[in-house]
Please model this.
Amino acid sequence: MSLTVRPATAGDLPSLVDLLSRQMTEHQLPSSSEAVAQAAATVLGDPRLGSFLVAVVAGEVVGVAYVAFLQSMEHAATIPLLEELFVVPEHRGNGAGSALLRSAIEQFSTAPGLPMELEVDASHRGVESFYHRHGFTLRQRSRWIHWPRAKAASPVGDEGMTHGPHSKRTSQ
Model:
C-alpha cells in the first residue's frame, strides 16, 4: 500500500464531501451533503479559516483531516483545532489515520507553547488511545452546544431569517 498525505485542492471537493458526510452519518450528526459542500468550499477558498489534508492510496482519497484555525482568547493566539479526522473503514488500521494526524501536527502545530486541540465525541471514546499514542492528553472539560429553536414569525419582520445547525443566518 502506497500512502501519501497532501493538502486538499478544489479538485478534491467531491471526495471531501463524501468522506465528511460519511463521518457525520457514522457519528449520527445532523448534516446534508449540500451544507458540507458549501462549508468545505468556503474553507478551500479562504485558507485563513482552516485547511484540509487528504490521505491517498492508489489514486483514491481514503481519509481526510480538517484543521480549523481558532482565534483563542484562552491561548491569546490562533491555534489549530483538529475538527475532523476520518478514514474509510476499509483503510483503518493501515496507518492512514496516523499519517494524517502526524502531517497535521507537523504542518499546523508549530508555535512553541501553543497546543493543537481536538475533541472526541462521548460516543466515540475508543479513539482516545489513538490520540494519546500521538502525544495528546485529555483535558477535564466538557463541551456544550446550543441549537437555536425555530422562531415563529415576528411582527418586527424577521421572516427572512433561517435558523438551524447548518443554515446561514441572514437578516433584512
Remarks:
- The two ends are 54 Å apart (CA to CA).
- The chain has one domain: 3-133.
- Confidence is low (pLDDT under 50) at residues 156-172.
- The first strand starts at residue 3 and ends at 7.
